Amino acid sequence: MRILVTGGAGFIGSHIAAAYLAEGHQVAVVDALAGGGGNRTPRGATFYQEDIRRPALAEVFRKERPEVVSHHAAQANLRRSIEDPVADGETNVLGTLRVLDLAARFGVKQVIFSSTGGALYGEPRSLPVGEDDPVLPMAPYGFHKYLAEHYVGYFRRVHGLGAVVFRYANVYGPRQDPSTEAGVISIFAEAILGGRPPVIFGDGTQTRDFVYVGDVAEANVRALGRSIEPPIHIATGIETSVNDLYARLRALTRSTVDAVHGPPIPGEVHRICLGIGRAKDLLGWRPRTPLEEGLRRTVEWFKTGRGAPA
């Protein structure tokens, strides 16, 4: 299949593009390279430097005529969405709307949309959270991703566009840029390996659901050619506290660096993990990489200079 991956030069998108290539698909990547992590486009993919908010994106669709669009271009920094909600909406809502409109105009058969699970439900009443639980975002990032999900639904109903919506937990792994403040594991790993104290915001008892990027890529391969109406969590269903995460990384690196604590971040939930029953039932997908193994691979990537593919 001809597949266009938006955001395919970034952390998650580059892993997905590589997984598609490994399956024998023809892959093109469009990315504005605004994330700060450099160009991670995998070898074998055609690369276009373009912003999904710009009308010029139509030229990429015209040249590539994709059958599938895997939409992973996003402003993914929750704190930045609080500081500048308008800019967040321009990318995560209007940019997504442009991608969907072009997909309909150019006869794309399927869109796979990357939404959020970790920033969507607020402080849940019980864990793990199900996809049908109340949506109560605490930051513009979550609101905008949820609104974009509804645009996906509109294009499915009105234009007949096949679609799958994935709600990701906290994705981690090699190639994650620690300068974005969006990935605590990469931030901690870089600090510890550099002999600097990582900063834990709050008391560290807050929990997250950490899912390895390779498992996320596998879910995106399994979704090809499918149209599934309800959103699907891609997660582990396991809570891990920030304190536990730091302790694991410290042991893994044999570090003697002590963490320091900062004030809690407004808009961040205290506890979250996502149920994965729907992913198992509808896609036959489940996470295969234990946290300890994923952390080992991530640390090894940082040790080898952050340049090698993984």
Q: Which sequence of strands runs across the widest sheet?
A: 3-2-1-4-5-6-11
User: What is the level-2 CATH architecture name of the domain at 2-173 and 210-236?
Assistant: 3-Layer(aba) Sandwich
Largest sheet: 7 strands, parallel
| Count of individual helical segments | 10
Shape designation: globular
Instruction: Using the CA coordinates, give the radius of gyration.
Output: 18 Å
What is the strand tally? 13
Order of helices and strands: EHEEHEHHEHEEHEEEHEEHEHH
Describe the structure.
Helix 6 crosses helix 10 (291-303). By secondary structure, the protein is α/β, with parallel strands linked by helices. The strands form four sheets. A seven-stranded parallel β-sheet has the order 3-2-1-4-5-6-11, sandwiched between helices. It has a two-stranded parallel sheet with strand order 7-10. It has helices at 11-22, 57-64, 78-83, 85-105, 140-159, 184-193, 213-222, 242-253, 277-283, 291-303, and strands at 2-6, 26-31, 46-49, 68-71, 110-116, 162-168, 170-172, 199-201, 207-208, 210-212, 232-234, 240-241, 260-262. The protein has a domain at 2-173 and 210-236: Rossmann fold, CATH 3.40.50. The mean pLDDT is 96. It is built from ten helices and 13 strands. The protein is 38% helix and 17% strand.
